[in-house]
Amino acid sequence: MKHTLLTLGVIAAPFLLYGVPSYADENLAQGWLFHSDATKGENITITGWAQASVADSNHGKQLAPATVFRHSDGFTLDQMGIMVEKKIKSNLISRVGPIPVEMPKDFDWGFNITAMYGADNFFFRTYGLDDDWSINKLGNFDRTDYYTTLTQAYLDFYLPYFNGSNLTIGLFHSPLGHEIGFALPSPAPANFYTHTYSFVHGPAKHTGVLWSSHLLNNPTTSKLSYELGLVRGYNNWQDIHNNWSLIANLRWRSADFKTWVDFENIYGNSTDDSVTSCLCGSPIPTSSALASDSSLKRFQSYLTISHDIDEKNSLAMEASYGYQEKSLFADILNQIPSTSLSNGGVDASWSGVNLSYKHKFNTQLSTSLRGEYFDTDGVNVMLPYAGKYKALTSNIAWSPVPYLRLRPEIRYDWYTGKAKPFGADKDTPPPLTQGQYDNQFSYSVDLTFFF
């Protein structure tokens, strides 16, 4: 652990000591490296980030599932990403909601292409697109197994109708969940290095179309927008059975934009959308062959309420619920006797609530605290055993210069149920069934460089 901390320090030192001159001139946290008059004139931005970390736990060994993306102890290059984007002039942001600007009168169009490399990309691969690239040959689920993904590739259109509307077409990050997506500055807008159990149960990306528009757009009162989408389920470029899922979201903003309420939902036929050969697609397996049923519906819902108490303090609460017909793991791994197959899967659900608090000491330093509770019948490749999972997470985020963030974090997870979900003694790919403990204390330091 001391060696890996030293490694991270060596990486950080040049940026801490010398800075980047072009940043000071442009006063940009991202986009300064490729900033030019040519791209500025076309409203095209090129931004990027690189995130690396060291982590360990009281058990050592495999840190997942508590740390979600993080596989095992030691040094990891989590993400290196680059995004080429032409933003549209609109009074709302697709997958984020309305923004306090006047409605543009003219049609506009834009695009987004995002590519990533690193250990996190095990979870960002898309079935039928980048899952079988030669560089993405499956490893041993080790922290040094790095993958490359085309994370997003979509077109955005603004139409000056219905108080302002957007149409997104292509491959885009999911509009569901509190800690996913690159609609806001990258990497994903999360206050924590580790993620919640509700996060890992949701989709990472979709292929399809998403329509965003307003229901209420009065400049002096609150705003309400909606999103409707048709997508190829969870993390799929193509669906084995040509199935589509429906997205239906509502987003409310108070007049002063201090309070946000987001109600997000997805529903569709999930049959066989978890692909064993690439360990990709949906993280919630079903089998039409074992269930003798080609229509296995999945529903998932998120309610997020966030509020800025003042300039320094903010709160966020996320409640989630999901339901799967004929869930495979809820049957095979959680029935008695274990490994028996009662009916090719059993109907299963999961639900949870997370509460987080953030305090900004100043523009450079902040601290965050999060508590979570998650109850599952055991449906997910990362969390295949039924039971109740609880966690407390705390960190400090320090930005000595705006393009650099250093974030030490500690987390404690504990579980109530019939299994041992934590502390597997080797790097084994999902489903994670090799645990030895019912609790885990983990700690990490991640460094993110924005350019």
TrEMBL record:
Indicate what this protein is called per its UniProt record: Porin
Q: Which SUPFAM superfamilies match?
A: Porins
One Pfam family, short name please? BBP2
Q: Which InterPro entries match?
A: BBP2
Protein origin, superkingdom: Bacteria
